[in-house]
Amino acid sequence: xxxxRFYFPDEEPALxxxxxxxxxxxxxxxxxxLTASGQPAFATLSAxxxxxxxxxxxxxxxxxxxxALPAYAWRxxxxxxxxxxxxxxxxxxxxxxxAAGVTYAWSRxxxxxxxxxxxxxxxxxxxxxxxxxxxxxxxxVVGPHDWIGLRGDSHWNVPEPELxxxxxxxxxxxxxxIANDVSSRDIEGENPLYLPQAKIYRHACxxxxxxxxxxxxxxxxxxxxxxxxxxxxxxxxxVAFQGETSTAKMHRSLDELAGYLGRYNDxxxxxxxxxxxxxxPGDDFTLQDGDQVLIEIEGIGTLCNPVRQM
Length: 310
What we know:
This protein is an alpha+beta fold. The chain has two domains: 2-89; 96-309, Fumarylacetoacetate hydrolase, domain 2. It is built from seven helices and 18 strands. It has helices spanning 45-51, 57-62, 105-114, 119-126, 185-190, 195-199, 254-261, and strands at residues 2-7, 22-27, 30-33, 71-73, 87-89, 96-101, 131-136, 148-150, 157-158, 161-167, 173-181, 183-184, 205-213, 223-230, 238-246, 271-274, 292-297, 301-309. The strands form three sheets. Strands 1, 2, 3, 4, 5, 6, 7, 10, 11, 13 and 16 form an eleven-stranded mixed β-sheet that branches. It is globular.
């Protein structure tokens, strides 16, 4: 089962469609408007995550008569929104977004290459306690087809494709989505204390397109693919970078990461936790203005974002 957040933009007033964010369930080629059911649990994502502490989301969905609710035509997730179709929002409303680092061996090696303080990354990879850091407020997260940004004070910016866990207030994994943990590698490499500046800024976190519920999906064995498309002046678009990994290569379990995030902390609206990247482009690669970044995760879908120089 897959859920999404969506809205209908203001440029289509003649359609008399609701303008506030909605929760939807993806069913075949349609998005069914769960918010239209009037049930409090489907009013917002926060309400749903809170309700899931006592009742599984799958059980809440079984109580809804989907046939009686408005349904809107879905679309190819790699295409721009078409008039009259739901425009996808990032799957967060009031959740804090956190991230884990150095959870794959390849990520550890890349951090060692870029860093002046190399032993920091070696030690955290093997340590009992994982690296966890704050990534974004919900307001700064971008969704499918929205742009991701390149810092003007950095010359080495990369996408980091990651599986993201959707957690309820009890820190239970209720679903997964796709994340792009955009990073300025030169800033982080200069000094580990610069990590917040390398990771936390406007348009540096993309999530979506949907939340795949945990039931029936093994998130510890999912293929992840990254493609960066680039069009040179006067030339057709071509692949500038492509890579693939699997969550099976992750050094830590997902429950372990979620458990550490919840230690001595409270998340009344739930949280989203990025689980680290196992795909790191070579040291000679950096994102450029106009690139298109596509991240595909098995069982979830494809997150597509254009790149813009800030």
